[in-house]
Amino acid sequence: MPTTAATRQLLSYLRMGLGIILPFLTFHPWWSRLKMGRLAYWRNHVVVTVLSALGIVPKGTVDVHKMLFKTADFLTRGGDIGIFSPMHMILCRKPKEQEK
Questions:
Q1: Do 25 and 4 form a contact (C-beta atoms < 8 A)?
Q2: Residues with Cβ < 8 Å from 92, sequence gap 6 or more?
Q3: Cα 16 to the chain's mean position, in Å?
Q4: pTM score, two decimals?
Q5: How far is it, in rounded angstroms, from Cα 34 to Cα 26?
Q6: What does the pLDDT read at residue 80?
Q7: DSSP secondary structure letters along 56-87
Q8: Phi and psi torsions of 21, nearest 5°
Q9: Do 90 and 11 form a contact (C-beta atoms < 8 A)?
Q10: Residues in the chain where the model's pLDDT stays below 50
């Protein structure tokens, strides 16, 4: 599955008269930004735990952090083996008709 719209697709949209408002272009797989090493996870977990213990962040933040880490881990695994691809959207605008 492609990770982004091909440049030729975007150019064909422009040729049809559609103005691209929010292009989603990247040169890396979408899941590469979600990858976090064990050291980074541990560091973030310590910071979140300390902030929670001090009462700086709301109760349940540590649980949410754990859930988000697990979710990112599963999404990256799915991306690595090619069984999951998120939906993305390119927002285009039809040009206004010019008055004659």
A1: yes
A2: 13, 18, 19, 20, 21
A3: 28
A4: 0.54
A5: 14
A6: 82
A7: SS-TTHHHHHHHHHHHHHHHHHHHHHTS----
A8: -95, -50
A9: no
A10: 1-3, 23
